[in-house]
Amino acid sequence: MSNLLTRRLALLADEAHLPVLRGGLRGIERETLRVDATGHLADTPHPAALGSALTHPEITTDYAEALLEFITPAEHDIATTLEKLDGIHRFSYSKLGDEMLWSQSMPCQLPSEEDIAIAWYGKSNIGMLKHVYRRGLAVRYGKAMQCIAGIHYNYSLDERLWRLLDESENRERKLSAKAFQSDSYFATIRNFRRYSWLLMYLFGASPALSSSFLRGKPHRLETLSDDTLYLPHATSLRMSDLGYQNDAQSGLSPHENCLDSYVATLTKAVNQPYEPYAAIGTKQNGEWVQLSTNVIQIENEYYATIRPKRVIRSGERPIQALCSRGVQYIEVRCMDVDPFEPVGISLETGRFLDAFLLFCALEQSATISEDEGRVHTDNFARTVKEGRRPGLTLRKDGAEVSLPAWGHELLERIRPVAELLDRERGGSAHVDALAAQAAKLNDPDRTPSARVLRELRANGGSFAAFGLRQSELHAAYFRSHPPTEAEHAYFTALAKQSLAEQAELERAPTGSFDDFVAAYRASNLCHDTN
């Protein structure tokens, strides 16, 4: 452990300070495709019984109309968060009829591009903005990529913890409380960039995909069966260059060293023209096809494995919220859906993530140079494509080291953090979660990606058949555990309220959509970064 981590753990272990560990919040966003009984993409609209995808706080859609997104409230304990996620699933299944939720990160068998419906949010200006943004994604990346699903893990620490560290460490720098907290979250992000390859090895669950996903594009995957492609030692093809990657964004400068750098990167990306997109234009035959011809249309198009976040106010853009009030939490975006868990993530995984992220927050975290950033990117890329390959090495401190050896070293550094969390809440859940991960480092066959490939090979090698079988198992679970009367009333009320809110938005007098887009694009200026 570094001296800084040792001092911080000792500070937090004080009985007077230990309670701040329970004050942070955990939220999950789970994406999942609606599919029909045969495992093909559902061609039906977003079910009205679930409410409005535009205004519902917990049930919406992501990129495709069939790609549901479940958003839990933020809770102090990940166990409570997962209970809420389970409730959203059970209510949704009570309204899905014969449809099911796809159990995998990589998509089911997809129809032709023109038959994949882009998410629709109604005729209000804000609804159309969300829809046209997705039209732009279709133009830029193709619709198949919009059907990839993941787990986003939203994580914050109690602001009292940041103030405690600030008081003990910040006497000379004299940063404001807001600046210290933002700097600390960016330090967390830098450590995440250094070590997130470990998450891909431990939890990556997409070593194979349907051959229909690639749409005839060139690739270096191997054939597992007539309808399935894979890499024998891959952990997460979703997070490889087959998933969310983009040439336009590849030239953007590193952004994880401070809030100012991040804001500058996003501002540049939102405003910098990109010739291939300019050749397409924003309209074709009078119809909007993308919001702009710049590197990214809006901030959310900036693909990253982790993001600094702030809850936004009505009419506010994410970049403005960060500028004016600083970083409030981080969003981990690289987690695959666990196909063996009905809600897509286990409690054990959540406990490990809590220990891992707290370690990233408390450990020493120097700034990252461009060369170092490339090393971190390469380590991540090696792990997602060949993480279980015997003898695989990663780059560490200028030398090649064994992935399992570095992984065990990291677990030992995380252990005191897990022990502190267990001391605060009682029991041994966090230390037990670490032990489960150590077993995966000792035996790659214990990883989710290896388990997926075993299941595939034992059942004819078909990704589609495996995904359908898991989806049916999860559907049977949720249908045998319907929502309670209170849950049904709660979600039914939310659905009705959200539909009423969308209707009110569409009744309200507004200006033209062209003017609305122009005003939205002009609102990305940031005047306060202190």
Describe, in plain words, how this protein is organized in 3D.
One of its GO terms (molecular function) is metal ion binding. Residues 10-381 form the Glutamate--cysteine ligase domain. By secondary structure, the chain is of the alpha+beta class. The chain has one domain (3-524): Creatine Kinase, Chain A, domain 2, CATH 3.30.590.20. 46% of the residues lie in helices and 11% in strands. The chain has helices at 3-13, 78-93, 125-141, 159-169, 177-195, 197-203, 247-250, 259-271, 275-280, 318-325, 347-362, 370-386, 403-425, 429-442, 448-458, 463-479, 485-507, 513-521; strands spanning 26-35, 59-61, 67-71, 100-101, 151-155, 208-210, 222-225, 228-230, 283-284, 287-288, 306-309, 329-335, 393-396, 399-402. The longest helix has 23 residues, at 403-425. The model has no long low-confidence stretch (mean pLDDT 94).
Helix content: 40-55%
* Strand percent estimate: 5-15%
Poorly predicted sequence stretches spanning 5 or more consecutive residues: none
What characterizes the major β-sheet? 7 strands, antiparallel
Shape: globular
Q: How far do the termini sit from each other?
A: 32 Å
The tally of domains stands at: 1
Task: Indicate the CATH topology.
Answer: Creatine Kinase, Chain A, domain 2
- What is the number of helices? 18
CATH class call = Alpha Beta
Under the CATH scheme, the architecture is 2-Layer Sandwich
State mean pLDDT (0 to 100 scale): 94
Structural class: alpha+beta
CA-atom Rg in angstroms: 23 Å
Instruction: Give the number of DSSP strands.
Output: 14
